[in-house]
Amino acid sequence: MTRPQFDLLDSRILHQLAMNARKPFLEIARLCNVSGAAIHQRVQKLQASGVIKGFETEISPEALGYDTCAYVGLLLSDPSQSDVVTEQIGRIPEVTECHLTTGKYDIMLKIYARNNSHLLELLHDRIQSIVPGRTETLISFKEEFRRQLPLDENCNAE
Fold first, then answer.
1. Residue 85: predicted pLDDT
2. Backbone CA torsion sign across 114, 87, 83, 148
3. Are 70 and 139 in contact (CB under 8 A)?
4. DSSP characters over the chain
5. What is the pLDDT of residue 5?
6. Which residues contact 154 (CB under 8 A, 6 or more apart)?
């Protein structure tokens, strides 16, 4: 896949949105010395090209009663079943991320559960019944930080 090319204005827009996705286009326009319409058109272009994947609201799992975060590595006895496994895993709402990986695990999952009992139920009753192989679980005590990739205002500019 070829990487989309973007200019200095695109880079500045991306930088502003990465810092605050809710920043009004008119404020970004003022910072970039262009019109609000220009920002709107550029953001649409960046979305169409796949540079901007979307905008989302980040909701605290703890605020919804999900106090346990875990990472589950799946070691498939038949790795050719990964498509079937990921399709079935996708039906479990508590699984928030699913990655095909190299190394020890064929698939890595990120799961949120209400508590350890709920996590055990998810693992035994839902996930392990799907997985032809083994699972290994790591519980996260605390997320120290999460961030966007570093985005310099001049990144990838033509």
1. 96
2. negative
3. yes
4. -PPPPB-HHHHHHHHHHHH-TT--HHHHHHHHTS-HHHHHHHHHHHHHTTSS--------TGGGT--EEEEEEEEESSGGGHHHHHHHHTT-TTEEEEEE-STT-SEEEEEEESSHHHHHHIIIIIITTT-SEEEEEEEES------PPP--TTTTB-
5. 78
6. 8, 11
User: In one letter, which amino acid is 98?
Assistant: C
Sheet of strand 133-140: strand arrangement: 95-100, 107-113, 68-76, 133-140
The DSSP annotation for 81-97 comes to GHHHHHHHHTT-TTEEE
The segments of the chain whose pLDDT lies below 50 read 153-158
Rg (C-alpha) for the chain, rounded Å, is 20
Structure tokens belonging to residue 30: 């003022």
Q: Is residue 133 a contact partner of residue 107, using CB atoms and an 8 Å limit?
A: no
